[in-house]
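Student: I would love a firmer grasp of how sequence relates to backbone shape in proteins. I am handing you a single protein, as its sequence and its fold in token form. I am told such tokens are a discrete way to write the fold. I hope you can help me see how the letters and the tokens relate. Take your time, and here it is.
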Amino acid sequence: MMSALAFSYQYLFPFLHISKAKWKENHGVNLGGTGLHLYAMDMAMFGYLYLKGGKIGADQVVSQEWVQESIRIQAEGHPEWFGNYGYHWWVSPQEHNRRVDMFFALGAHGQYIFVIPSKDLVVAVRKKPGKKEGVILPRDLLFEKILPCF
């Protein structure tokens, strides 16, 4: 049996140029939906893969059908700005966040991969950025500082 990490190193990470990832395990089994540790650039490449419908260059790494299915609403009724949930992606339409149609991955401790197809934009945040009055939330960084530039 091949672990999820070993599978990723063989079939996914080479296309994304990821060479150093860790994934938490429990009794030799990767946790699946949690515990994957990546650098910010690696996170951005994962978002880029989804932005491009599963393609990197000429290679169809993940089927376009799976990409579309995973960013389709699978569960409704989550907190207001998050939107709804797909398969490991939050799906946040403009009417939910009052800014732009997007989908995003949300990790522990302020890690985000925001994908905004209409802007051809991927933003990866590894930690909550600080500011003098306290902590700026990654979504506020996206909405207040990054999106106005596009």
Q: What stands out?
A: Residues 40-51 form the longest helix (12 residues). The chain has a mean pLDDT of 88. The CA atoms of residues 104 and 114 lie 4 Å apart.
